[in-house]
From TrEMBL:
Species: Devosia litorisediminis
Family note: Belongs to the Gfa family.
Keyword terms: Lyase, Metal-binding, Zinc
Domain CENP-V/GFA: 2-116
GO molecular function: carbon-sulfur lyase activity; metal ion binding
The protein, known as: GFA family protein
C-alpha cells in the first residue's frame, strides 16, 4: 500500500499493491500543468482510493484526458485518460518511499531549453 496527498492534505489517496516503474513526460501540457516536467506512475483505477475527491478540480486538457489538481492548494495530482482503465498519479504526491524508480522519458522533443536530461534513461522523442 502506498499513500499520498496534496500539499494541504485536503485530497488524500492510497494505491493497493506495488507501484510500476515511473515515467517522465516533457510535453508542453505536462510542463505547464506541473511547472516543470511530470513524473508519474500509471495504476489500475481499481487500485486507487481517494478521500477528499470533492476538493479535486479537473481540467479537460483534450478530448481524451483530464488533469486533476487540489482546488485548495493547487497541487498537481492526477493524469486521467478517461477512456482507459488506468490513471496516472504524480510521483511528488506520494508520502514516504515509493518503492519504484523513473524508467523512461517521453516527449523529450518538447522539453524545456532550461534543463538537460542526463540520467542515462531511455528517451522517446514523442
Amino acid at each position: 500500500m502506498h499513500s499520498g496527498s496534496c500539499l494541504c492534505g485536503a485530497v488524500q489517496f492510497s494505491v493497493a499493491g506495488d507501484l510500476p516503474e515511473a515515467s517522465a513526460c516533457h510535453c508542453t501540457m505536462c510542463r505547464k500543468h506541473t511547472g516543470h516536467y511530470e513524473a508519474g506512475v500509471d495504476v489500475p483505477r481499481a487500485s486507487l482510493t481517494v478521500t477528499g475527491d470533492d476538493k479535486i478540480n479537473w481540467f479537460k486538457s483534450s478530448d481524451k484526458v483530464r488533469r486533476g489538481f487540489c482546488a485548495v492548494c493547487g497541487s498537481s495530482l492526477f493524469f486521467d485518460p478517461v477512456h482507459l482503465d488506468w490513471i496516472g498519479i504524480m510521483m511528488g504526491a506520494f508520502d514516504g518511499p515509493a518503492g519504484t524508480k523513473l524508467a523512461l522519458h517521453i516527449f523529450v522533443a518538447d522539453k524545456g531549453d532550461y534543463y538537460e536530461i542526463a540520467d542515462g534513461l531511455p528517451q522517446n522523442a514523442q
